[in-house]
Amino acid sequence: MKKILLVILVALFLGQTANAQKKIWDETEAEKAERLSWWREARFGMFIHWGLYAQAARHEWVKKRERIPDEEYQKYFEIFNPDLFNPTEWAKKAKAAGMKYAVITTKHHEGFCMFDSDYTDYDVMNTPYGKDIIKEWVEAFRAEGLGIGFYYSLIDWHHPEYTIDRVHPQSAQTQEEYNELNKDRDMSIYREYLKNQVREILTNYGKIDIMWLDYSFPGKFGKDRNDWGSVELMKMVRRLQPEIIVNDRADLKDYWGGWDFTTPEQFKVESWPEIDGEKIPWETCQTFSGSWGYYRDEHTWKDKKQLLVLLIESVSKGGNLLLNVGPTARGTFDHRADNALSEMGDWMKYNSRSIYGCTQAPEEFEAPDNTLLTYNPDKNRLYIHLLDYPLKNFLLEDYKDKIKYAQFLHDASELQMSEPYGHWIQQETGENDVNLILPVNKPNVEIPVIEVFLKE
Ligand code: GLC
Q1: Mean pLDDT by 10-residue block, N- to C-terminus, for the chain (456 residues)?
Q2: Total H helices, total E strands in the chain
Q3: Which of 102, 116, 149, 157 has a C-alpha 20 to 30 A away from that of 139?
Q4: Which atom of ligand 1 is nearest to the CA of 324?
Q5: Which residues pair with 406 in a beta bridge?
Q6: To test the ligand 1 pocket, which listed residue (64, 265, 287) has its Cβ within 8 A of the most ligand atoms?
Q7: What is the rounded distance in angstroms from the CA atom of residue 343 to the CA atom of residue 299?
Q8: What is the DSSP string of 213-264?
Q9: Is residue 60 within 6 Å of ligand 1 at its C-beta?
């Protein structure tokens, strides 16, 4: 019995040290927090999905969805020429919407490179457009003071050595079929190619703030970190750009330094995501409609309020929002995207103080019905977002001894406080409750915000 216990203890100990050695690089928790601080404060970024698929205009996965062979997909490469591309205009729109950083697809699953690459002919330089889109984009966005992020697809549906898997346009059913399809393909050559390309994009464009690798799908007919060579890849990323912030899709969740933030996609989290009880940095990525790439005939566009709630709710749970635009093949944002961005900008112009530098409110503050709370720890202010405008009296339960002053954020107009209000009836209220007197008419703001100055 004792022996067994000893063996278990030794195994546990060895397991622990093996774990402790699973490191991509050396950095303390505090150093990591410091490295991520600008991004945490920024809270709101623009995702841009742009590639040859914009011409099909029916989803960036069109090659897979319709199982289009390379020869047929080639037509998009031969005519790609976004003559109206003006990245300065894009950057100004992102900034006016209140976004602080942007992440663009340097290569999506289709395998086409929007940058000048020494390792393939399948890049923008060989299309009629003939100029390095990534270079033009980086210069314009940086000039507007926005953070620069690169999305790079680990998946590649064009590279001849990339082995066919279950998400590939030529996906099959049985092991025999896969063996046949992959008999002349060598993943180690692709692995080298992908590393070379990531080196290129992290070397040729100056300081890059975010690296967004997409994505791993371990299991049967799938791909994981061994297929990508993720450990070596991530070491190189950290070496080339020590301050960069990386997402979590290279299948390195159990490595220290293998990722910085998690990426809930197209859904709202119930609460701040955690690992082993620790709250972790997160960013949700979302589309205006269902597709990332430009999709002409897709009509399920979220409205102004839904988009604002997405942003506010993310911050209220300690996270960021990366909101996607899929530009057209002419190089423009379509009118629905323009419209959504400018509506968000209208709100952000007056209310961004409840977003930047804000996070989840301390637990002692309970959110009143139909509201979302955010909190700025440096300023010690609480922000109450009114999703459904109340009628005149707005009761804050158990807030009285915590509030110094309250005002609307958009116009800095005072909101007077009173004792809990009741007329003809006796309401049950607590000693520490307080009433805010709101104007009857809802201010001309989609989601009005109350800014509460808290007592020290
Ligand atoms: C998915 C999709 C992709 C999109 C991405 C954004 O992984 O494959 O098309 O780029 O998510 O998060």
Answers
A1: 55 49 89 98 98 98 98 98 98 98 98 98 98 98 98 98 98 98 98 98 98 98 98 98 98 97 93 96 96 97 98 98 98 97 98 98 96 98 98 94 97 94 77 95 98 96
A2: 13, 16
A3: 157
A4: 6
A5: 452
A6: 265
A7: 18
A8: EE--B-STT-B-HHHHTHHHHHHHHHHH-TT-EE-S-SS-TTSBTS-S-B--
A9: yes
